[in-house]
Write a structure and sequence with these properties.
Blueprint: H1 2-29, H2 45-57, H3 61-64, E1 88-89, E2 97-100, H4 106-109, H5 114-123, H6 138-141, H7 146-158, E3 170-171, H8 175-178, H9 197-207, H10 210-213, E4 234-236, E5 242-244, H11 261-269, H12 292-295, H13 300-310, E6 323-324
Antiparallel strand pairs: 1-2, 2-3, 4-5, 5-6
């Protein structure tokens, strides 16, 4: 019997030692991405204007990196918080840790070179070599035209500086180890010509990371590749209510297969109507994380291109229950 326990002890010790070696290997060798490029981005008015359009209405960087008022429908940005960061994403919302959106105003990114910002946005690796949790969809930004990323950098450099010290994010174990292996070098592409409607729409849809929210995920939070754009991903509010993304496939019954181009564009542009008043939302009532007011500022031709691309998505029936109120404790 003593011999059996001795053998078991050796086995356990070996497993523990291998685990320690594996963790040490990951810690010392990952993330594996190239060094930050040597960049000096000229902050021209055209670059800043294009970057403002992208960051506010396509990639919607300011969505997470500002404070949103969810006492109103769609959580419009609180004035004075643009780019200041501090938004929290934690276990109550289904995340494996506590993650904070960083301050991306000049007050928060002054320690970054342009090349370091480019690497951060396109690979998820900080100027200190740390891997970011992919709450920021850097894998999608890494597929964008570098010129568009340069424009975004020029824009955030132009924001009014806001002093806001944001806490460090902290992933739960073992995600804090796995996280280091996620960043990869980007695979940038040239932006398609606008005349190639479907290709340009696909490019914009990637930049907006539509598939990330509009695809269900597994228990590890990884999107299911056989259900792309079929909707139904859960997004929990701190009060316990849950909103789910819409089906964007061409299924006529549960998706947008019956939508015309005008209906699609109008769905966004209604929020820019001069008579539109943002409705107040009481705790526990329906709300949405979809930043409608931000996407409403997208150019009509860009929305039409996205519609043209979505028309190529195969129908996939998925009858999404859009909202579940908090479960009463009574």
């Amino acid at each position: 019997m003593k011999k059996i326990f001795k053998i078991l002890a050796y086995v356990v010790a070996t497993v523990v030692l291998l685990a320690i070696i594996g963790i040490a290997f990951v810690n010392f060798t990952y993330p594996k991405v190239k060094h930050a490029p040597d960049l000096a981005i000229e902050k021209t008015s055209d670059r800043v204007a294009r970057g403002a359009y992208l960051a506010n209405h396509v990639t919607v960087c300011v969505d997470c990196h500002s404070t949103r008022d969810f006492s109103l429908l769609s959580g419009p940005i609180v004035p004075g918080t643009l780019g200041a960061g501090g938004d929290i994403f934690d276990q109550s919302m289904g995340f494996p840790g506590v993650f904070y959106a960083k301050n991306i105003t000049p007050a928060g990114i002054s320690a970054y070179t342009d090349g370091e910002l480019f690497r951060l946005i396109t690979t998820g690796v900080t100027n200190e070599g740390r891997a970011m949790f992919p709450l920021m969809p850097y894998s999608y930004y890494g597929k964008m035209d570098p010129e568009d990323i340069f424009d975004i950098i020029a824009y955030i450099r132009s924001l009014d500086p806001v002093e806001n010290e944001v806490p460090e994010s902290k992933a739960d174990f073992p995600v804090n180890i796995i996280l280091k292996t996620i960043p990869k070098d980007g695979s940038p592409m040239d932006k398609p010509e606008k005349s190639d409607l479907v290709a340009y729409g696909k490019y914009l849809t990637n930049a907006a990371s539509c598939v990330e929210c509009h695809t269900p995920v597994n228990q590890q939070g990884v999107i299911l590749p056989d259900k792309l754009y079929s909707g139904g991903r859960d997004f929990a509010f701190p009060d316990g209510s849950v909103v789910r993304s819409s089906n964007l496939t061409q299924d006529a019954e549960t998706g947008i297969g019956g939508w015309t181009e005008g209906m699609f564009v109008g769905k966004f542009k209604q929020y820019l109507d001069s008579g539109y008043q943002v409705p107040k939302v009481a705790p526990g009532e329906f709300n949405t994380i979809m930043p409608w007011m931000m996407y409403a500022g997208m150019e009509e031709d860009d929305l039409k291109a996205i519609y043209a691309y979505l028309k190529t998505i195969e129908p996939m029936p998925n009858n999404v229950v859009k909202f579940s109120p908090p479960v009463s404790s009574e």
